[in-house]
Amino acid sequence: MQEVRSTGLTSQSALTFTAGGQTLAPQVGLDFIALSRRRQPQVELKDSEVVFVGYGITAPEFGWDDFKGVDVRGKTVVMLINDPPITDPQTGRLDDAIFGGKAMTYYGRWTYKFESASDRGAAAVFIVHETGPAGYPFAVIAAGSGRETFDVGSEAASQQRVAVEGWITLDTARRLFAAAGQDYATLKAAAARRDFRPVPLHARAHVTVANTVRSVASRNVVALLPGSDPQLRDQFVVYSAHWDAYGRNPALAGDQILNGAADNAISVAMMLEIAQVTAALPAAERPRRSLLFFAPTYEEKGILGSQFYARNPLHPLARTVANLNIEPLDANLAYGPTRDLEVVGRNPSTLDDYAAEIARAQGRVLRPDSEPEKGYYYRSDHFEFAKVGVPAFFVRSGVDFLDAPAGTGEKLRLQYLVNDYHKVSDEVRSDWTCGGAAADAKFLLALGLRVANADTIPEWKPGTEFKAVRDASLRAAAPAK
Which residues of 290-310 are buried (b: 16+ CB within 10 A; e: fewer)? Predict the structure, then answer.
């Protein structure tokens, strides 16, 4: 058990905008949500100037700066969700060379946007939520309104963060911009150009956040299966599957338990099965490298358990050769096996090559990310390993079922997202066979053993955003000559 020391914060918020002689009073949970990670009982912003800063991105490698040197200290900034959609003039399609084209980069994640505003001393950030680009409806965000959030950083670090972090609905943004004499669609289109400059909305934000603060200790659960090779057993292949769900929502009538059967109990069960199989192998068949089975806490609170581990690793990160993360992103694992598996994200390493070999051997197909614009790669535990340079691989369940009509997988995905994701209805059902989970566990077992027994360790491929971090880590850990 690795104790994860954290601060719990329960925020109750209120927001009004004044613009063009109008007062807008969005309703919390319906039109906006806001919280503060400051360790103080009351955070209040009065007459904070509101500035639209496009996508809130500064990316020198793309010649992109949404701030253009404009001082936003003490101001409330409104940002668009995701990356700017840059079109290739030759093809008319999104340009893969800039912000990943259709695929989201880390610049598009809300975590980056809050970090970006914090670095510039903004007082508050409101991200305009749009369901299509986000990949989930506003109701998913609203479900966390007024509920406890957690932070694993220090108190000093929390004071460096923007005071208020929030989201507003698309309709709220449109009303705010209209009251300020601006057209939301026009400014959104302007924000997709390099020459965009921040636009003062001549509006004021008034925000109050009342915080209940407490110290909380949760736990990461970690198990080690030592490797059989004396020369390689101090290198580690990590399987991860977060054990937390959304807990209980006392505001609901009747059933209040958000069980998290698909997200993420099925994945934890898969990891336990893989652990049992590998632990039962005869001594002569034990993997050469050690296997680490890692069940982090707080994934649903911002991947915090994995973030804590990355800052406080039980085994050196330079000797952590790979992370294989398990999270379905839908309920398809609960049903029958599929012909396909879907690789999440565009962060290639040689793990992709191993995976392709194993899929072929098992008569399966690896498909590219079907929704790269939603940035799923940045939304689960493997990302905290990738950020510190560890090659990380993430697949989701497939959609091409062996024993169901075409289109069944896509239909089940959509049903889960709309009806069950982070809701009380994410619970075990009578028609669940878990045949998909069994098939995918066999794939992940084979992949882990392939990495654990290989003569060389996985590497990020050239041009991947995490390669420089990994290379620096390995150089620092190399013995002096």
Answer: bbbbbbbbbbbbbbbbbbbbb
**184 within domain boundaries:** yes
* pLDDT tens digits along 298-330: 999 889 999 999 999 999 999 999 999 999 889
Residues 204 and 239 in one domain: no
Residue 352 CA to residue 391 CA, distance in Å, equals: 10
Q: How far apart are the first and last CA of the chain?
A: 37
What's the pLDDT at 160?
A: 87
- Asked whether the beta carbons of 241 and 271 are under 8 A apart, the reply is yes
DSSP string of 223-236, one letter each residue = EEE--S-TTTTTSE
Asked if 37 and 177 touch (Cβ cutoff 8 Å), the reply is no
**Which residue would you say has higher pLDDT here, 468 or 188?**
188
Q: What's the pTM value of the predicted model, to 2 decimals?
A: 0.83
Rounded CA gap, 432 and 212, in Å? 40
Mean pLDDT of the chain: 94
What mean pLDDT do residues 135-145 have? 84
> How many other CB atoms sit within 10 Å of the CB of residue 279?
12
Is 238 found in the same domain as 100? Answer: no
Residue 87 DSSP class: B
Residue 34 lies in a domain: yes
Which two structure tokens, joined as six digits, stand for 346? 């565009």
Distance CA 244, CA 265 (A): 8
Please check whether residue 218 lies inside any domain of the structure: no
Burial of residue 108 (number of CB atoms within 10 Å: 0-12, 13-18, 19+): buried
Nearest 5°: phi and psi at 50? -100, 130
3-state DSSP helix/strand/coil percent for the chain, to nearest 5?
30, 25, 40
Q: Which domain holds residue 185?
A: 2-213
**Tens-digit pLDDT profile for residues 83-102:** 999 988 888 888 888 888 88
Q: Quote the number of domains for the chain.
A: 2
pLDDT top residue among 12 and 61: 12
SS3 355: helix
